[in-house]
Amino acid sequence: MIGELIEDDNAGTVGSAALSVASLFFIAIMIIAFTANPIAIGTDVGERAPEIEGKAYDGGTWYEFDFEGYFDSSWEQGNVSGQWVALIFMDTDCPYCQQSASNQADWANTYNSNNPNWNGPHVNFIASATELNIQGHDSSRAEIQDFRAEYGHNFPYIDDIDQDNMKEWGIPGTPNYFLIQPDGIIAWVSDDASEDLSQAIQRITPREGA
Amino acid sequence: MIDNLLVAAYLIPTLFGLILVAPFGKSIGDSLSARFEIMATERGRITAGLQLITFFGFAVSAQTFWISSKISEGGNFCASSTVFNCDDLIGNNDLNVDPVFGLSWGMIGMMVNAFLLFMVLVIKNEPNGEYTERFIKLGTIITGLGIFVVLLLVSYEIQESKICLYCTTAHIANIAALFGFFRLGKLYDDKSAWKQN
Protein backbone atom coordinates (compact mmCIF):
# COMPACT_ATOMS: atom_id res chain seq x y z
CA MET A 1 0.00 0.00 0.00
CA ILE A 2 1.39 3.34 -1.01
CA GLY A 3 0.55 6.23 1.30
CA GLU A 4 0.20 9.75 0.04
CA LEU A 5 2.65 12.18 1.62
CA ILE A 6 1.18 15.51 2.65
CA GLU A 7 3.65 18.30 2.21
CA ASP A 8 3.45 21.35 4.48
CA ASP A 9 5.79 24.07 3.28
CA ASN A 10 5.31 26.03 6.50
CA ALA A 11 5.95 23.17 8.88
CA GLY A 12 9.57 24.23 9.52
CA THR A 13 8.63 27.82 10.34
CA VAL A 14 5.71 26.84 12.55
CA GLY A 15 7.73 24.14 14.32
CA SER A 16 10.68 26.41 14.95
CA ALA A 17 8.47 29.25 16.28
CA ALA A 18 6.55 26.80 18.48
CA LEU A 19 9.79 25.40 19.86
CA SER A 20 11.18 28.88 20.61
CA VAL A 21 8.01 30.00 22.39
CA ALA A 22 7.60 26.71 24.28
CA SER A 23 11.22 26.97 25.47
CA LEU A 24 10.65 30.55 26.60
CA PHE A 25 7.49 29.53 28.47
CA PHE A 26 9.25 26.58 30.07
CA ILE A 27 12.19 28.71 31.22
CA ALA A 28 9.84 31.32 32.72
CA ILE A 29 7.86 28.67 34.59
CA MET A 30 11.06 27.06 35.88
CA ILE A 31 12.37 30.41 37.15
CA ILE A 32 9.06 31.05 38.94
CA ALA A 33 9.00 27.51 40.36
CA PHE A 34 12.56 27.78 41.72
CA THR A 35 12.26 31.27 43.18
CA ALA A 36 8.74 31.21 44.61
CA ASN A 37 6.94 28.79 46.86
CA PRO A 38 3.29 29.72 46.57
CA ILE A 39 0.96 28.65 49.35
CA ALA A 40 -2.61 27.87 48.45
CA ILE A 41 -5.46 29.64 50.20
CA GLY A 42 -7.66 27.09 51.86
CA THR A 43 -8.90 25.50 55.05
CA ASP A 44 -6.65 22.44 55.17
CA VAL A 45 -3.56 22.18 57.36
CA GLY A 46 -0.62 23.94 55.67
CA GLU A 47 -2.80 26.31 53.66
CA ARG A 48 -3.14 30.04 54.16
CA ALA A 49 -6.32 30.89 56.06
CA PRO A 50 -8.98 32.60 53.93
CA GLU A 51 -10.27 36.04 54.92
CA ILE A 52 -12.78 36.55 57.73
CA GLU A 53 -14.93 39.59 57.18
CA GLY A 54 -17.71 41.39 58.97
CA LYS A 55 -18.45 43.44 62.03
CA ALA A 56 -17.00 42.23 65.30
CA TYR A 57 -18.20 42.75 68.87
CA ASP A 58 -15.64 43.07 71.64
CA GLY A 59 -18.03 43.64 74.52
CA GLY A 60 -18.34 47.37 73.85
CA THR A 61 -19.10 48.14 70.23
CA TRP A 62 -19.43 46.54 66.80
CA TYR A 63 -16.47 47.45 64.62
CA GLU A 64 -14.96 46.42 61.26
CA PHE A 65 -12.99 43.24 61.87
CA ASP A 66 -9.37 43.12 60.63
CA PHE A 67 -8.37 39.46 60.36
CA GLU A 68 -5.09 40.22 58.55
CA GLY A 69 -4.02 42.36 61.49
CA TYR A 70 -3.63 39.20 63.61
CA PHE A 71 -0.82 37.82 61.45
CA ASP A 72 2.87 38.47 61.00
CA SER A 73 4.28 37.08 57.74
CA SER A 74 7.84 37.23 59.10
CA TRP A 75 7.09 34.78 61.93
CA GLU A 76 9.32 31.70 61.96
CA GLN A 77 8.58 28.22 63.28
CA GLY A 78 9.47 27.85 66.95
CA ASN A 79 9.25 31.56 67.77
CA VAL A 80 7.25 31.79 71.01
CA SER A 81 6.59 35.51 70.75
CA GLY A 82 4.21 35.16 67.78
CA GLN A 83 0.51 35.20 68.60
CA TRP A 84 -1.60 32.26 67.41
CA VAL A 85 -5.28 32.36 66.48
CA ALA A 86 -7.98 29.92 67.56
CA LEU A 87 -10.98 30.42 65.30
CA ILE A 88 -14.35 29.05 66.34
CA PHE A 89 -17.28 28.79 63.95
CA MET A 90 -20.44 28.61 66.02
CA ASP A 91 -24.16 29.28 66.15
CA THR A 92 -25.69 30.74 69.31
CA ASP A 93 -28.63 28.31 69.00
CA CYS A 94 -26.53 25.21 68.44
CA PRO A 95 -26.66 22.93 71.53
CA TYR A 96 -23.14 21.60 70.94
CA CYS A 97 -21.83 25.18 70.80
CA GLN A 98 -23.60 25.97 74.06
CA GLN A 99 -22.11 22.86 75.68
CA SER A 100 -18.56 23.74 74.61
CA ALA A 101 -18.81 27.47 75.33
CA SER A 102 -17.61 27.10 78.93
CA ASN A 103 -14.54 25.18 77.78
CA GLN A 104 -13.81 27.92 75.25
CA ALA A 105 -13.86 30.53 78.03
CA ASP A 106 -11.39 28.43 80.05
CA TRP A 107 -9.09 27.88 77.08
CA ALA A 108 -9.06 31.59 76.20
CA ASN A 109 -7.98 32.36 79.76
CA THR A 110 -5.45 29.52 79.91
CA TYR A 111 -3.59 30.05 76.64
CA ASN A 112 -3.10 33.69 77.34
CA SER A 113 0.10 35.66 77.84
CA ASN A 114 -1.42 36.99 81.09
CA ASN A 115 -1.55 33.48 82.54
CA PRO A 116 1.72 32.96 84.50
CA ASN A 117 1.23 29.19 84.36
CA TRP A 118 1.30 29.09 80.56
CA ASN A 119 4.76 29.16 78.99
CA GLY A 120 3.54 29.00 75.42
CA PRO A 121 2.51 31.73 72.99
CA HIS A 122 -0.54 33.93 73.37
CA VAL A 123 -3.54 32.46 71.57
CA ASN A 124 -6.13 34.95 70.31
CA PHE A 125 -9.58 33.41 70.34
CA ILE A 126 -12.09 34.59 67.74
CA ALA A 127 -15.67 33.39 67.27
CA SER A 128 -17.54 33.66 64.00
CA ALA A 129 -21.23 33.48 64.87
CA THR A 130 -23.47 32.22 62.12
CA GLU A 131 -27.14 31.31 61.77
CA LEU A 132 -27.56 27.73 60.61
CA ASN A 133 -30.43 26.93 58.24
CA ILE A 134 -32.34 25.03 60.90
CA GLN A 135 -35.77 25.86 62.25
CA GLY A 136 -35.51 27.79 65.52
CA HIS A 137 -31.96 28.98 64.82
CA ASP A 138 -32.89 32.60 64.12
CA SER A 139 -30.06 34.79 65.35
CA SER A 140 -29.33 38.48 65.78
CA ARG A 141 -26.55 40.72 67.00
CA ALA A 142 -28.36 41.10 70.32
CA GLU A 143 -28.41 37.31 70.70
CA ILE A 144 -24.67 37.14 69.91
CA GLN A 145 -23.97 39.80 72.57
CA ASP A 146 -26.07 37.91 75.12
CA PHE A 147 -24.38 34.59 74.32
CA ARG A 148 -20.92 36.13 74.69
CA ALA A 149 -21.83 37.66 78.04
CA GLU A 150 -23.59 34.53 79.33
CA TYR A 151 -20.51 32.34 78.89
CA GLY A 152 -18.03 34.96 80.07
CA HIS A 153 -16.14 35.12 76.78
CA ASN A 154 -13.60 37.93 76.51
CA PHE A 155 -12.78 37.45 72.83
CA PRO A 156 -14.35 39.09 69.76
CA TYR A 157 -17.47 37.73 68.09
CA ILE A 158 -17.93 38.32 64.38
CA ASP A 159 -21.38 38.71 62.89
CA ASP A 160 -21.64 35.96 60.26
CA ILE A 161 -25.40 35.67 60.34
CA ASP A 162 -25.39 35.89 56.52
CA GLN A 163 -23.05 32.82 56.48
CA ASP A 164 -20.51 34.54 54.19
CA ASN A 165 -17.49 33.45 56.25
CA MET A 166 -18.95 30.02 56.85
CA LYS A 167 -19.34 29.46 53.09
CA GLU A 168 -15.90 30.89 52.32
CA TRP A 169 -14.37 28.46 54.79
CA GLY A 170 -16.57 25.51 53.72
CA ILE A 171 -17.85 24.86 57.23
CA PRO A 172 -20.26 21.88 57.29
CA GLY A 173 -21.57 22.38 60.84
CA THR A 174 -20.90 23.96 64.21
CA PRO A 175 -18.89 24.13 66.35
CA ASN A 176 -15.83 23.97 64.11
CA TYR A 177 -12.35 24.94 65.25
CA PHE A 178 -9.15 26.05 63.51
CA LEU A 179 -5.76 26.72 65.06
CA ILE A 180 -3.77 29.18 62.94
CA GLN A 181 -0.06 29.95 63.17
CA PRO A 182 1.13 33.57 63.65
CA ASP A 183 1.99 33.70 59.92
CA GLY A 184 -1.59 32.87 58.89
CA ILE A 185 -1.02 29.22 57.99
CA ILE A 186 -3.56 26.73 59.34
CA ALA A 187 -1.90 24.38 61.81
CA TRP A 188 -4.85 22.26 62.96
CA VAL A 189 -8.52 21.74 62.11
CA SER A 190 -11.16 20.05 64.23
CA ASP A 191 -11.83 17.44 61.52
CA ASP A 192 -9.21 15.54 63.48
CA ALA A 193 -11.57 14.14 66.13
CA SER A 194 -8.76 12.48 68.09
CA GLU A 195 -8.02 15.69 70.01
CA ASP A 196 -9.79 18.90 70.96
CA LEU A 197 -8.59 22.48 70.48
CA SER A 198 -6.92 22.61 73.88
CA GLN A 199 -4.94 19.43 73.22
CA ALA A 200 -3.96 20.73 69.78
CA ILE A 201 -2.68 24.01 71.26
CA GLN A 202 -0.60 22.11 73.79
CA ARG A 203 0.78 19.72 71.18
CA ILE A 204 1.52 22.19 68.37
CA THR A 205 2.51 25.54 69.84
CA PRO A 206 6.14 26.14 70.88
CA ARG A 207 7.18 26.60 74.51
CA GLU A 208 9.64 28.91 76.16
CA GLY A 209 12.84 27.09 77.04
CA ALA A 210 11.87 24.04 74.99
CA MET B 1 12.07 52.54 44.03
CA ILE B 2 13.67 49.34 42.68
CA ASP B 3 10.30 47.93 41.65
CA ASN B 4 9.60 51.15 39.71
CA LEU B 5 12.89 50.66 37.83
CA LEU B 6 11.87 47.11 37.09
CA VAL B 7 8.55 48.32 35.66
CA ALA B 8 10.53 50.65 33.39
CA ALA B 9 12.54 47.65 32.14
CA TYR B 10 9.28 46.20 30.81
CA LEU B 11 7.51 49.40 29.88
CA ILE B 12 10.23 51.10 27.81
CA PRO B 13 10.71 48.21 25.31
CA THR B 14 6.92 47.82 25.08
CA LEU B 15 6.53 51.51 24.24
CA PHE B 16 9.40 51.24 21.75
CA GLY B 17 7.54 48.34 20.13
CA LEU B 18 4.42 50.51 19.99
CA ILE B 19 6.40 53.27 18.24
CA LEU B 20 7.69 50.74 15.70
CA VAL B 21 4.19 49.50 14.81
CA ALA B 22 2.85 53.07 14.55
CA PRO B 23 3.05 54.94 11.21
CA PHE B 24 5.38 57.54 12.75
CA GLY B 25 7.84 54.78 13.64
CA LYS B 26 9.06 54.77 10.04
CA SER B 27 11.85 57.27 10.66
CA ILE B 28 13.16 55.22 13.60
CA GLY B 29 12.86 52.06 11.53
CA ASP B 30 14.78 53.68 8.67
CA SER B 31 17.55 54.82 10.98
CA LEU B 32 17.89 51.27 12.34
CA SER B 33 17.60 49.53 8.97
CA ALA B 34 21.35 49.65 8.29
CA ARG B 35 21.91 47.52 11.40
CA PHE B 36 18.64 45.56 11.40
CA GLU B 37 17.62 44.67 7.86
CA ILE B 38 14.10 43.77 8.91
CA MET B 39 13.39 47.45 9.69
CA ALA B 40 13.75 48.39 6.03
CA THR B 41 10.16 47.42 5.18
CA GLU B 42 6.94 48.40 6.88
CA ARG B 43 5.96 44.76 7.33
CA GLY B 44 9.32 44.00 8.95
CA ARG B 45 9.05 47.02 11.21
CA ILE B 46 5.56 46.09 12.40
CA THR B 47 6.44 42.44 13.03
CA ALA B 48 9.61 43.50 14.89
CA GLY B 49 7.52 45.90 16.98
CA LEU B 50 4.95 43.16 17.68
CA GLN B 51 7.75 40.79 18.65
CA LEU B 52 8.99 43.31 21.23
CA ILE B 53 5.48 44.01 22.53
CA THR B 54 4.46 40.35 22.90
CA PHE B 55 7.82 39.33 24.39
CA PHE B 56 7.72 42.03 27.05
CA GLY B 57 3.99 41.44 27.53
CA PHE B 58 4.92 37.84 28.29
CA ALA B 59 7.76 38.91 30.60
CA VAL B 60 5.66 41.37 32.63
CA SER B 61 2.87 38.78 32.93
CA ALA B 62 5.42 36.27 34.24
CA GLN B 63 6.57 38.94 36.72
CA THR B 64 3.01 39.48 38.01
CA PHE B 65 2.54 35.71 38.34
CA TRP B 66 5.79 35.57 40.32
CA ILE B 67 4.69 38.48 42.52
CA SER B 68 1.35 36.80 43.32
CA SER B 69 3.25 33.61 44.22
CA LYS B 70 5.63 35.53 46.51
CA ILE B 71 2.75 37.35 48.20
CA SER B 72 1.00 34.03 48.88
CA GLU B 73 4.15 32.99 50.78
CA GLY B 74 3.45 35.92 53.09
CA GLY B 75 6.01 38.33 51.65
CA ASN B 76 5.47 41.65 49.96
CA PHE B 77 6.94 43.08 46.79
CA CYS B 78 5.57 46.49 45.97
CA ALA B 79 3.44 47.35 48.99
CA SER B 80 3.13 51.07 49.44
CA SER B 81 0.88 53.56 51.15
CA THR B 82 0.50 55.48 47.90
CA VAL B 83 -1.96 54.81 45.09
CA PHE B 84 0.79 52.85 43.26
CA ASN B 85 0.50 49.60 45.14
CA CYS B 86 0.50 46.33 43.24
CA ASP B 87 0.50 44.08 46.33
CA ASP B 88 -3.07 45.06 47.20
CA LEU B 89 -4.23 44.03 43.72
CA ILE B 90 -1.94 41.14 42.74
CA GLY B 91 -2.11 39.86 46.32
CA ASN B 92 -5.90 40.08 46.52
CA ASN B 93 -7.14 36.51 46.17
CA ASP B 94 -10.54 37.59 44.92
CA LEU B 95 -9.16 39.87 42.20
CA ASN B 96 -5.95 38.16 41.06
CA VAL B 97 -7.70 35.25 39.37
CA ASP B 98 -10.22 35.11 36.54
CA PRO B 99 -13.80 34.79 37.78
CA VAL B 100 -14.62 31.69 35.68
CA PHE B 101 -11.76 29.19 36.03
CA GLY B 102 -9.87 30.77 38.93
CA LEU B 103 -6.64 30.97 36.88
CA SER B 104 -4.11 33.60 37.86
CA TRP B 105 -4.27 36.66 35.57
CA GLY B 106 -0.47 36.51 35.38
CA MET B 107 -0.57 32.95 34.06
CA ILE B 108 -3.30 33.88 31.56
CA GLY B 109 -1.16 36.81 30.37
CA MET B 110 1.83 34.49 29.96
CA MET B 111 -0.16 31.98 27.88
CA VAL B 112 -1.81 34.62 25.70
CA ASN B 113 1.40 36.56 25.04
CA ALA B 114 3.34 33.35 24.34
CA PHE B 115 0.73 32.39 21.73
CA LEU B 116 0.78 35.89 20.23
CA LEU B 117 4.58 35.75 20.09
CA PHE B 118 4.38 32.37 18.35
CA MET B 119 2.03 33.79 15.70
CA VAL B 120 4.23 36.87 15.20
CA LEU B 121 7.32 34.66 14.72
CA VAL B 122 5.49 32.55 12.11
CA ILE B 123 4.27 35.67 10.27
CA LYS B 124 7.75 37.22 10.41
CA ASN B 125 9.57 34.13 9.17
CA GLU B 126 7.02 33.09 6.55
CA PRO B 127 5.13 36.26 5.58
CA ASN B 128 3.58 34.70 2.49
CA GLY B 129 2.82 31.37 4.15
CA GLU B 130 -0.62 29.80 4.45
CA TYR B 131 -0.94 30.70 8.16
CA THR B 132 -0.30 34.43 7.78
CA GLU B 133 -3.84 35.66 7.12
CA ARG B 134 -5.29 33.31 9.74
CA PHE B 135 -2.78 34.39 12.39
CA ILE B 136 -3.26 38.10 11.70
CA LYS B 137 -7.03 37.69 12.16
CA LEU B 138 -6.56 35.50 15.23
CA GLY B 139 -4.12 37.98 16.76
CA THR B 140 -6.57 40.84 16.19
CA ILE B 141 -9.44 38.86 17.76
CA ILE B 142 -7.43 37.71 20.80
CA THR B 143 -6.06 41.18 21.58
CA GLY B 144 -9.51 42.67 20.84
CA LEU B 145 -11.05 40.36 23.45
CA GLY B 146 -8.17 41.32 25.71
CA ILE B 147 -9.59 44.85 25.83
CA PHE B 148 -12.57 43.52 27.82
CA VAL B 149 -10.17 41.89 30.28
CA VAL B 150 -8.22 45.17 30.54
CA LEU B 151 -11.48 47.03 31.28
CA LEU B 152 -12.39 44.48 33.96
CA LEU B 153 -8.97 44.78 35.60
CA VAL B 154 -9.05 48.58 35.43
CA SER B 155 -12.46 48.45 37.15
CA TYR B 156 -10.77 46.46 39.96
CA GLU B 157 -8.12 49.19 40.24
CA ILE B 158 -10.83 51.86 40.48
CA GLN B 159 -12.73 49.79 43.03
CA GLU B 160 -9.61 49.37 45.19
CA SER B 161 -8.34 52.93 44.48
CA LYS B 162 -4.93 51.43 43.66
CA ILE B 163 -2.84 51.29 40.51
CA CYS B 164 -0.64 48.30 39.74
CA LEU B 165 2.11 49.45 37.39
CA TYR B 166 3.03 45.90 36.34
CA CYS B 167 -0.59 45.21 35.42
CA THR B 168 -0.81 48.56 33.60
CA THR B 169 2.29 47.64 31.54
CA ALA B 170 0.61 44.34 30.57
CA HIS B 171 -2.55 46.27 29.62
CA ILE B 172 -0.49 48.65 27.47
CA ALA B 173 1.15 45.62 25.80
CA ASN B 174 -2.29 44.22 24.92
CA ILE B 175 -3.50 47.53 23.46
CA ALA B 176 -0.22 47.97 21.55
CA ALA B 177 -0.46 44.40 20.20
CA LEU B 178 -4.06 45.02 19.07
CA PHE B 179 -2.88 48.13 17.24
CA GLY B 180 0.03 46.17 15.71
CA PHE B 181 -2.15 43.30 14.49
CA PHE B 182 -4.67 45.82 13.10
CA ARG B 183 -1.88 47.61 11.20
CA LEU B 184 -0.53 44.29 10.00
CA GLY B 185 -4.01 43.33 8.75
CA LYS B 186 -4.31 46.61 6.83
CA LEU B 187 -0.91 46.06 5.28
CA TYR B 188 -1.78 42.48 4.35
CA ASP B 189 -4.85 43.73 2.49
CA ASP B 190 -2.51 45.85 0.35
CA LYS B 191 -0.76 42.94 -1.36
CA SER B 192 1.91 45.03 -3.09
CA ALA B 193 3.08 46.66 0.13
CA TRP B 194 3.00 43.31 1.94
CA LYS B 195 5.15 41.53 -0.63
CA GLN B 196 7.94 44.12 -0.41
CA ASN B 197 11.10 42.45 0.78
What does this structure look like?
The complex is a heterodimer of chains A (210) and B (197). Chain A is built from five helices and seven strands; from the N terminus they run αβββαβαβαββα. Chain A is an alpha/beta fold. Chain A has a seven-stranded mixed sheet with strand order 2-1-5-4-3-6-7. The radius of gyration of chain A is 25 Å and the shape is elongated. Chain A starts with 10 loop residues before the first helix and ends in a 6-residue tail after the last helix. By secondary structure, chain B is mainly α. Chain B has a single domain, classed as de novo design (two linked rop proteins). Helices cover 72% and strands 0% of the residues of chain B. Chain B has eight helices and no strands. Chain B has helices spanning 2-21, 26-32, 42-72, 87-90, 105-125, 132-160, 165-189, 191-194. Classes of the chains: A alpha/beta (210), B mainly alpha (197). The interface between A and B is medium-sized, with 29 and 27 residues.
